[in-house]
Write a structure and sequence with these properties.
globular; 45% helix; 7 helices; mainly alpha
Length: 177
């Protein structure tokens, strides 16, 4: 199970990288050598293979804080969409939708809550572990992802999503949301 969870995190991280930057260096062994970029197709093929191989070994869903078989299904569907394989994307999306532990939120503001039935995988940052992977992914606490005020102003008056989407944080340098 631990190996499946570790491989999930690696494949997930490569998925984030390839969708942001295209081809990236694909590291499957430890090396001190300079590694050149692999093609986007090679990285996507690696990700697809990883998720396909760990599907059977991933644990059943217990909490969104851990990689699970259902999180693997979600990622298989996402990568299939990226690859243009609509049949596979549909198959795995439907598998996930049939699991009654998950559902679309009725109230938009509940999407962001860790108890949301929409959460298939969600790494929480905590104040007790500021160097955890989740801490950097969440953008909480260090202002890696400050919001431009024009985004806040783009919401129309009375749009309920605005209140649910932004939190103003106290900052020693001020002005961050």
């Amino acid at each position: 199970i631990m190996m499946a969870e570790a491989r999930f995190i690696r494949a997930w991280a490569y998925c984030k990288r390839v969708t942001h930057w295209g081809g990236v260096p694909l590291m499957t062994t430890v090396t001190n050598d300079r590694v050149s970029r692999n093609s986007e197709a090679d990285v996507l093929a690696f990700i697809t293979k990883e998720f396909d191989e760990i599907e059977a070994d991933a644990p059943d869903f217990s909490t969104p804080a851990y990689a699970s078989q259902q999180a693997v299904w979600m990622m298989i569907a996402r990568v299939a969409l990226i690859n243009g394989d609509l049949t596979k994307a549909k198959t795995y999306s439907e598998k996930l939708m049939q699991d009654t532990r998950f559902a679309l939120a009725v109230d938009y503001s509940s999407i962001w809550q860790k108890e949301s039935k929409e959460m298939v995988i969600h790494w929480q940052a905590t104040i007790n572990d500021p160097l955890s992977y989740g801490f950097f992914l969440s953008g909480a606490g260090r202002y890696e992802f400050p919001i431009d005020e024009t985004l806040v102003e783009a919401f129309e008056e009375g749009d309920l999503r605005k209140e649910a989407s932004f939190t103003e944080l106290a900052s020693p340098i001020g002005g961050y949301k």
